[in-house]
Amino acid sequence: MSSTMRAIAVKGGKGPATSLFVDQIAKPSAAAGQAIVKIHAFGLNRMDLLQREGRYPVPPQAPETIGVEFSGVVESLGAETTDDFKVGDEVFGLAYGGAYAEYIAVSTKMLIHKPKHLSWEEAAGAPETWITASQALFLIGDFQAGQSVLFHAGASSVSISGIQLAKAEGAKAIYATAGSQEKIDFLVKELGVTAAFNYKTQDWAAEIQKATGGAGVNLTVDFIGAPYFQGNLNVAAKDGRVVLLGLMGGVQLPEGVNIAPLLMKRIRVEGSTLRSRDEEYQRKLRDTLVSHALPKFCDGTFKIFVEKVFPFEQIVEAHQLLESNTTKGKIICTV
């Protein structure tokens, strides 16, 4: 058995999409509590772009290779591996890094048995997005049936997952923002949101206030950051929550931001990351996904939207497509 494997690397350690190439590196071995998974497919995420550019704080336990979500087959198990996995099991899961490769060493606490009817590509696109959406809604956002939710970047994979979760858990109303009419139509017609607003052509905060009769929304899930901070406060209902998951729009608040709604409406704003969390927290999130989403993957209620599949060797084109901000759903690479 070969002691090396193919993996995606970055020329010079960081750079543009064109700096990605297929390298030959040492194959990982399983530590205690880990499995070696032969990867069939992996999903792309925005953190991958930042890591490639040297702008993402990678956890110390992560390998140099990019990538956090994958699907594949368990090839071997390390010592003291007590979870319900065995050699030959078809799995998908989340890792601290290393998924852009032929093999990955990963804690069995972050593996999930792959339902037979899910393709390798669909399964590879589920872990990061559905776990992040579950975390935002249930662990941080304290979402309850009968409440309303607003998802910014509505056609992003996390929001697509979160919209489906919120619907299944009894949301009273679901709103979203997006940047094109195509995405607005997708959100309304395909995902069935209550209403979606084009942030380029509409004042989304004013529209949501109008749509809710001034009552606002109970929970907002935001990936944009500073430019949306005031709007998020304005549309929050009494005792509303804002979960901040990204800073795509920047980190410096505009001049004149009025924070009075924080006090007057008792708004809770909480930021969160996933990759820096310890294994026990991530295991809890995995179990949340298994309980809330896995049965609905199996019966077809939940859909994993895959925008495009690339072969492993076309990783440059895959990153360039993700950077274009035109996608609805996951970009997947097959190994």
From TrEMBL:
Molecular function terms from GO: NADPH binding; oxidoreductase activity, acting on NAD(P)H
SUPFAM superfamilies: GroES-like, NAD(P)-binding Rossmann-fold domains
Gene3D superfamilies, sorted: Medium-chain alcohol dehydrogenases, catalytic domain, NAD(P)-binding Rossmann-like Domain
Superkingdom field: Eukaryota
Domain Enoyl reductase (ER) span(s) in chain numbering: 15-333
Record keywords: NADP, Oxidoreductase
One Pfam family named in its UniProt record: ADH_zinc_N
NCBIfam families given in the database record: quinone_pig3 (TIGR02824)
Protein's name according to its UniProt entry: Enoyl reductase (ER) domain-containing protein
Organism per entry: Penicillium cinerascens
Upper classification of the organism: Eukaryota, Fungi, Dikarya, Ascomycota, Pezizomycotina
